[in-house]
Amino acid sequence: MAIESGQLTVTTSAQVVYTADDDGAWLQIHNDAVTGDIFLGPAGVTASTGFHLDAKEEMGWMHIKAYDVIYAITDSGTVALSWLAVT
Predict the structure, then answer these.
(1) pTM score
(2) Residue 50 and residue 8: Cα distance in Å, rounded?
(3) Domain ranges, residue 48
(4) What is the pLDDT of residue 31?
């Protein structure tokens, strides 16, 4: 078992948050912003279709299957995001 973590600045263009390896992973994501929302989903995610995380909100642990990719986008400006994965 390994633990990984990271941060990124989310913009209005969808970007990769995390890609699971061949064993999959357990993933938790936190919206670090004081203000500003993020939206999570597959490639092509938008502010209309994504899983919504308000500022300072975190998503509970979710299991990502092998090679799945999670993307994030914001509807305006930039928003900081942190993630933690257990593989």
Answers:
(1) 0.94
(2) 17
(3) 3-86
(4) 98
Element of type H or E holding 86: strand 79-86
Task: Name residue, tokens 């939206």.
Answer: 39
Continuous H helices in the chain: none
Indicate which CATH number applies to the domain containing 33.
2.60.120.10
CA distance 57 to 31: 5
Both tokens assigned to 66: 């092998």
Determine how many CB atoms are found less than 10 A away from the CB of residue 7: 10
DSSP 56: T
Cα–Cα separations (whole angstroms), residue 39 to 2, 15, 18, 21, 50? 26, 11, 14, 22, 5
Alpha-carbon torsion (46, 82, 11, 58), positive or negative: positive
Q: Are 81 and 14 in contact (CB under 8 A)?
A: no
Number of domains in the chain: 1
* Residue 1: pLDDT over 90: no
Q: For the residues 6-10, what does the mean pLDDT come to?
A: 97
